[in-house]
Amino acid sequence: MRQLIESLVRDMLNPYLERMEELSDETEDLRRRQQNMIRLGYVSEVHESGFLVRVKHGELVTPFIRWFANAAGETSDYRCPSVGEQAVILNYGAGHNGTQTVALIGLFSDNFPAPSTDPNEIVRCYPDGSIVSYHAVNHVLKLDIKGDAIIDIEKSATVNVGTSASIDVGESASIKAGGEVTVDGSKIKLNGGVGVVTGAHKCMITGTPHADCSSTVTAAQ
């Protein structure tokens, strides 16, 4: 009789036990997927296209995956991640092979520390040491360029300076305009020399203005 009762109980409980086992397997699978959804790693390789990276996290390495940029629409921004740069891996597909994964870059680390510790300073530092920075409290914009600088402006350009302006160039500088170039200031210095003789300058002998003067470069007396 006891064996018969035990057999009946097993038969009654068997569907529930199977379902509990299925739920246990599903829970374990969800736990593994959740662990793989967000991981911290670093860029181990950059694809030759410049649009994909591999990210190493623990002993695992992702396949080549996309990485986040600041903007990727009609306005776009491009800055390829560096090998060794820290990254957060977001597995939006919750899979195991990393094919549905993207890398969120831009975390400071020991390999690439922050270029400034001043919260009032906005800095962009380039691999060759060139720096573009702006201090929000001191109101100072600084461009420290180690190489060449090229500015192409399709239409017109206007530069208004409140007080004084100074431009120091290590080698040569060239300004080319298709139209008129106007420079206005209380005092204009060229090579730190003496005053410029203009077309309004009168001849010491005849007392009349000099006729032979530049028609393309003009300056006030």
From TrEMBL:
Coiled-coil spans in chain: 13-40
Pfam families, alphabetized: Phage_base_V
Keyword Zinc-finger: no
Keywords tagged on the record: Coiled coil
Superkingdom of the organism of origin: Bacteria
Keyword Kinase: no
Domain Gp5/Type VI secretion system Vgr protein OB-fold stretches: 39-94
Protein name: Phage baseplate assembly protein V
UniProt source species: Marinomonas transparens
Lineage: Bacteria, Pseudomonadati, Pseudomonadota, Gammaproteobacteria, Oceanospirillales
